[in-house]
Amino acid sequence: MINTCPVCGNSEFNYAPVLWNDLISEWQLAENEVKYIDRQQGFFCVGCGNNLRSMALADAILRAYNFSGSLEQFVESDSAKTLMVLEINEAGGLTPVLKKLPNHRLVCYPEHDMTCLSFESATFDLVLHSDTLEHVYNPVAGLSECCRVLANNGHCIFTIPVIVDRFTRSRAGLSPSYHGSPTESGGNLLVQTEYGVDMWKDVLLAGFSSITVHCLEYPAGLALIARHY
Fold this sequence. Notes:
Layout: E1 13-15, H1 21-26, H2 31-42, E2 43-45, H3 52-64, H4 71-74, H5 78-81, E3 85-88, H6 95-98, E4 104-107, E5 124-130, H7 139-149, E6 150-159, E7 169-170, E8 193-194, H8 200-205, E9 210-217, E10 221-228
Parallel strand pairs: 3-4, 3-5, 5-6
Antiparallel strand pairs: 1-2, 6-10, 7-8, 9-10
């Protein structure tokens, strides 16, 4: 049970379900899967508005850098101010906090191709993305680019929707499925991959040295920490 928001330090939370019937049917979600995905997306901090997915990402950042405090406090620290940070797509409500970092760079996928990043190798200390990888046609190539632009000992920290009792599957050949509200169907929201318990494979195939599953709350609040040595 989460007592304190890792983004802002607030201790008041609320919840509103977000899944809709078509998406539940397309993903063939069981009742317990609907419950924890709804919690991941619909449980939120009253103070900063970030949902559990974003809180898990923030908590993973804090753990990766052994920081005791909130993300808002972390970005004001001397050690954070030296970090070269790349954020691929806005990570929910974390972006306004991360933008306080002097060396923060935000790019948007698919306008900025995640499989061919326009940055020199070994440029960044930290690469972040949140619920973006599942929309990338070639996720291994996308992760490989994240690895390429990381400096030695850098972190790639991200979230993806994970159905923890299944294996990963491509949605190629299946009916199109989109994230976002039921009224949104833009190509940038098209789901390419449904991730499962073997989500770590793509990370290692992409060339990372290690992968850690960071758990703020199981199974709804998971984030991945990939390291490049």
